[in-house]
Amino acid sequence: MRFFLYGTYIPANQLVAVARAAEACGFHGITIPDHVVYPHDTATAYPYAPDPETGRTPWDETCDWPDPMVSAGAMLAATERLTILTGIFVLPMRDPLLVAKAASTVAALSPGRFILGAGAGWLREEFEILGFDFDTRGPRSDEAIGALRALWTGERVSHRGRDVTMRPAPPMPIPIYVGGDARPALRRAALLADGILPPLNSQRRTAEHLETIAGLRAEHGRTGPFDYVAAAAGVGTPDGIAEIGALGVESVHVDPFALYVRRYGGLTLDERRAALERYAGEVIAPLAGA
């Protein structure tokens, strides 16, 4: 089982130290969240809110949102094996050319250790502030994934009516994982991506997702590996991880900070290290020795 550490709520000045600690504790990777700006007044409900009736986010305006590409470069440079997964980089509120350039540079600096986790986004007001249309974000996400794949070849490609080349090309294909669990996200992941990073779900819901994705991939003749990074109930014990693994899942997305410290923000670096070490001792190590 590959363990990805949930990277939301980690302040920018703790990222590198947490990345080093996560690698030392046996984590496969760490995810990096994404907001460019966070509007103070929003009418958009958070689709994964702990309380769906309020739609409120579990964080407040004091939460850090470090730039994912800059953060990835810093954490990759400070570690030797850790994989960085942007989770989730909001693709349709950026120019695909700039995304392709940043991602290919990160991948060239640390071959095989960077995954672009990309999603359509949910916060309408953020799109409006940045000058991108919110209602067309789905189709534009699909188009952007195709553009990224083409640009990363390093060959001459046609983009917006002009022939362009982007270098450096990544030394190996950059995996793209899609974020979300709505039907459009499942379809996007199945048909265009190499994996998916869904929100927290029950094991029953996880099994349903796997069945849907497998059906779509078979229907469209897609073969090859596909990684479902499960954020499912039960990730706090070896038995729970084993149950998730029995579904065919090979990667899990876990948050030891919420599991042990039981709060999202305001943790000291020592508290984070202690939570990582406890999770490694209670969950990762027993499974490694099984």
Topology of helices and strands:
Blueprint: E1 2-5, H1 15-24, E2 29-32, H2 68-78, E3 83-86, E4 89-90, H3 96-109, E5 114-119, H4 124-130, H5 137-151, E6 157-159, E7 162-164, E8 176-179, H6 183-192, E9 195-197, H7 203-219, E10 227-230, H8 238-245, E11 251-254, H9 256-261, H10 269-288
Parallel strand pairs: 1-2, 1-11, 2-3, 3-5, 4-5, 5-8, 8-9, 9-10, 10-11
Antiparallel strand pairs: 6-7
Helix pairs in contact: 1-2, 1-10, 2-3, 3-5, 6-7
Domain Luciferase-like: 11-232
Protein name: Luciferase-like domain-containing protein
Organism: Capillimicrobium parvum
Number of helices: 10
Low-confidence stretches: none
Largest sheet: 8 strands, parallel, barrel
Biggest sheet strand line-up: 1-2-3-5-8-9-10-11
Q: Which percent range describes the beta-strand content?
A: 5-15%
Question: How many domains make up the coordinates?
Answer: 1
Give a count of the beta strands, DSSP E runs of length 2 or more.
Answer: 11
Give an overview of the whole structure:
The protein has helices at residues 15-24, 68-78, 96-109, 124-130, 137-151, 183-192, 203-219, 238-245, 256-261, 269-288; strands spanning 2-5, 29-32, 83-86, 89-90, 114-119, 157-159, 162-164, 176-179, 195-197, 227-230, 251-254. The chain is of the alpha/beta class and 290 residues long. The chain has one domain: TIM Barrel (Alpha-Beta Barrel), CATH 3.20.20.30. The strands form two sheets. The protein has an eight-stranded parallel β-barrel, surrounded by five helices. A two-stranded antiparallel ribbon has the order 6-7. α1 (15-24) crosses α2 (68-78) and α6 (183-192) packs across α7. The model has no long low-confidence stretch (mean pLDDT 94).
